Amino acid sequence: MLLDEVKLFSGTETRYLAEKIADAYNEPLGELKINRFSDGEISPVILESVRGAYVFFIQSTFTPADNLWELLLMIDAAKRASAKYITAVIPYFGYARQDRKDKPRVSIAAKLKANILQAAGADRVMTMDFHADQLQGFFDIPVDHLKSDYIFMPYLKNKKMENLCFASPDVGGVKRARTYANYFQTPLVICDKYRKKANEIAEMTVIGEVEGMNVILVDDLVDTAGTMCKAAEMLKAKGAKSVRAICTHPVLSGKAYENIEKSVLEELIVTDTIPLKKEISKIKVLPTAKLFARAIRHTHENKSLSQLFWE
Questions:
Q1: Are 4 and 50 in contact (CB under 8 A)?
Q2: Catalytic hit among 193, 196, 236, 303
Q3: Which residue numbers in the chain have pLDDT < 50?
């Protein structure tokens, strides 16, 4: 069966990753120009035909909001140029933390974003490690939710650490940490935190025994690194031999780099869904390009993506 042509395009801030994905896919990035008016207004132009093609737009939606707006305008441009099927490849899906009404008179930004992507013309969304798995239910189009387990587990396995223990930095991340604990057949501990406001921890306790263990904290993203560094400090105080952390998305805002450098963490392992603002010795970045390239190929060839998940 003759397959439709694949076209890969990149937004401005994710080109560093899109080029690696295109190289792994063995297909050059398509020609696209992002024009800007003098007031900053964005006007993308696709410089080649996409008529009847399977189009993949690669763009993480971290701040500033221009990254999301670029993606929406590129999707709209492809739809109006008669692309057959449009997939928004969003390695980091920003605004996913705003997925519910946890207090009166707040927006559910993640749902609004899902609505906007569909309204712009996306036929499919591909992403990695939503803040919560149930965000897939916000969409009325297919969502390919890739897992960073495929990247982190081989790395950890190769380190061959003894007396291993996995920890969740909060109650909400227990399922994520349990996946690793079950695979490596290790104990699981929980750092139970209480916040008075966003990005500020009022209280934290450790549930479980970590005496003499090499502990690995598991989370989907690290922002100011306050929670992670405090959890690492408490785990060391409870007798942990060493503390590392794996976090898919390195948001790393505010004093995050300073917090990590001063922390008891031996290593913070992240992926390249968001570019680092600076490199420090404690941060190890693992590539995602091959995984996204394989997922794109499987999508185009109508193959199952299940084999792309670590078992």
A1: no
A2: 193
A3: 1, 311
Domains of the chain listed by start with CATH number: 6-146+289-308 (3.40.50.2020), 149-286 (3.40.50.2020)
DSSP 3-state of 234: helix
Q: How are beta strands 124-128 and 188-197 bridged, if at all?
A: unpaired
Give the residue among 76, 104, 102 at the shortest CA–CA distance from 195: 102
Q: What type of residue sits at position 159?
A: K
> Residue 196 has what pLDDT?
55
* Cα 114 to Cα 110: distance, rounded to the nearest angstrom: 6
Q: How far apart are CA 120 and CA 72, in angstroms?
A: 6
Question: Which pLDDT tens digit goes with each residue over 155-178?
Answer: 999 999 999 999 998 887 899 999
Nearest Cα to 6, choosing from 288, 301, 289? 301
Nearest-angstrom CA–CA distance, 213 and 203: 23
3-state secondary structure of 147: coil
The tens digit of pLDDT for each residue in 259-290 reads: 999 999 999 999 999 999 999 999 999 999 99
Q: Read off the tokens for 28.
A: 């050059």
Lookup: tokens for 30: 């398509």
Which whole-number Å values give the CA distances from 39 to 36, 43, 188, 295, in the listed order?
8, 12, 52, 38
Our answer to whether residue 193 is catalytic in this structure is yes
108, 99 Cβ separation under 8 angstroms:
yes
* Separation of alpha carbons 150 and 163, rounded Å: 22
Residue 97 DSSP one-character state: T
Q: Are 169 and 228 in contact (CB under 8 A)?
A: yes
